[in-house]
Each structure stands twice: as C-alpha cells, then as structure tokens.
Design brief:
312 residues; alpha/beta; 9-stranded mixed β-sheet; 9 helices
Length: 312
C-alpha cells in the first residue's frame, strides 16, 4: 500500500467519479481504476459501491477516509514542518561563555532586540561540545598575525576556527592609601607577600592571573575571592589587599579609593578568543552575531557601549 495510492483514493472519494478524479490527478482513467482495485484487494474490502454510472463510498470506504485524512494532511505538511524546524535550529545560536561574559550577554540582549527571531542557548561549561561559539581567553601569545586572527585546527579532532576579538592589559588594583598607589609602574614580584583579592576558582580569569604571578616567581596568596568584579573593587578599596584589573572587560574603576598601577614585569596581557565549532562559521546567523560582537568590542574600546561591562 503506497501513500500515493491513498491520495488517489481520497480524490476518488471526494468526487465519487473515476473520470473526474483522474482529470484532477492528471493521470489516465484506466490507471486510476486499476490502482483502486489493487487497494481494495490489499485491504480485503470493497471501498466503493457502483450505482448506475456513478460510484459511492461503501461503509468501509467512509471509515478509511476518516482514518487516512489526518495522516495524509500530516504527511503533506511534513516538508514544510521539517524545513521550519531546520530553520529554527539554524536560528538558535549555542554559546559557551568562559570569558568577557558581560560583553557577550549584554550583546545578546541588544542583538535580540534587533533580531527577535534569533534564539540563544547559553552555557558556561569547560567542555564546549555542542556549541557554535565558545568565548574564552588565554595569556597573550606571540604568534604570527594571520595565526592570531584565524587559527584553524583539525587532524581528526572536532574542526574549529579561532578568532581573536580582543587583547587587553591587566593592571594592579591597589588601595589609594597604599605605597604602590603613587608609583608610575610596578614589578609584580614586589607583591609576592601581599594578600590578593580575586575572582573565585571557577572563573577562567583566576587561572590567568595566577599564571601572571607564577611568571613573576611566586604563587599569589588569595585572601578573598568573589563572583563579581565590583566586590573585588570594594574589598581592595577597603584596604584589604591588591588584585588584578583588566583594562577593558571590567571597565574603569568607579571607587575613588582604588588606583590602577601599570605592571612592568612580567607582561600581563590576555587575548579574548571566539572559537567556531561544527562548521558554525558557515551559518549566516552565527556569523552575523559574531560580527555584531566584534563591533561591540570596538565600541567598548572607544567607550561607546550603551552598557557598562563588569564581568570576567
């Protein structure tokens, strides 16, 4: 029993006339009659009753119409529904945010206002599998410019493309009352015995800052840790310790009792990277959002963003 055969049956049932049904279906009348006979044989029932030159549905025929009509409607709508599902999937951007969270999340809000048909699924997992874009960071690498801007990896693993969207310097945030506050710069090794205030251990920025200290020959003594930069700023302003402060992604310090001192040694810089997974760079919706984020980063560096950044 073929789907096409059932569609032929519904046409005959509608017109109760083989010739009219054949004309509407654009097939030969003998072929349609033969198809109906095969269907009746397969089902083992008579679907039509012959009255003079016309035919009418039998009781079994009426029951078959009731059964298969919704099925045929579903099957006819299936291509459109599948296409709609595919389009909805393409318009859902899966993000894994491990760095620059404020820029990205506020970018999502702003982008969504301009593109209400685009949806986002956001995670903050160490494992980026299943995402379209992963935003992460690392200590600045001395790589060739083309490698910095577009690094591709493969060799049997999940193919991905990495693009750098931001590079920023870290300052040492100190209390305004500190002896460091009036210094033009500082070497990080001078702070080996200081108490450090920073983000908690689940934040990627914490690992980067610890690497800066290790580069200066010591492991930082973490005396306070927090989930938000504003708390770090307040604790430093209260004179409880020192901490790192990225120049862009946290924005300027707002407390008058906190001073940012340039770090001369070691060089404390990080790159914020966007990694494309699963050929997501071929998705026009993903690429459009990526370009929007890049424009947000440029505006942020110029101080033109409509929102304040305050995340890692």
């Amino acid at each position: 029993m073929l789907l096409l055969q059932l569609k032929y049956f519904l046409a005959v049932a509608k017109y109760e006339h083989i010739t009219k049904a054949a004309e509407q279906l654009h097939i030969a009348q003998p072929s349609l009659s033969q198809s109906m006979r095969r269907l009746e044989k397969e089902l083992g029932v008579s679907l039509f009753e012959h009255r003079s030159r016309n035919i009418v549905l039998s009781e079994a025929g009426r029951q078959l119409v009731e059964i298969i009509t919704p099925v045929i409607e579903i099957m006819d709508s299936l291509p459109g529904r599948l296409k709609e599902t595919q389009e909805r999937h393409k318009k859902t951007i899966h993000l894994n945010i491990r760095a620059a969270a404020s820029i990205i999340t506020n970018g999502i809000i702003s982008y969504k206002m301009e593109h209400p048909d685009i949806n986002f699924q956001v995670s903050q997992k160490e494992d980026p599998s299943g995402c379209d874009l992963c935003i992460t960071s690392q200590i600045s690498q001395k790589r060739h410019k083309s490698e910095q801007e577009n690094a591709a990896f493969g060799e049997g693993k999940e193919e991905r493309i990495v693009k750098k969207i931001l590079e920023e310097t870290f300052y040492l945030a100190v209390p305004a009352s500190s002896d460091y506050a009036s210094r033009p710069y500082i070497n990080l090794e001078e702070t080996a015995k200081e108490g450090y205030i920073g983000m908690n251990n689940s934040k990627l920025i914490r690992a980067i800052c610890e690497q800066f200290c290790m580069g200066a020959g010591f492991s930082p003594q973490i005396i306070f840790e927090s989930d938000v930069p504003t708390a770090v700023e307040n604790l430093i302003g209260a004179g409880l310790g020192v901490g790192f402060w990225p120049e862009y992604t946290w924005g300027p310090v707002t407390a008058s009792n906190v001073v940012l001192v340039p770090i001369k040694h070691p060089i404390c810089r990080r790159e914020v990277l966007v990694t494309f997974y699963n050929h997501s760079e071929e998705n026009p919706y993903v690429m459009d959002f990526y370009k929007y984020i890049v424009s947000c980063v440029k505006k942020m560096k110029k101080g033109e963003l409509p929102w304040q950044t305050a995340e890692v």
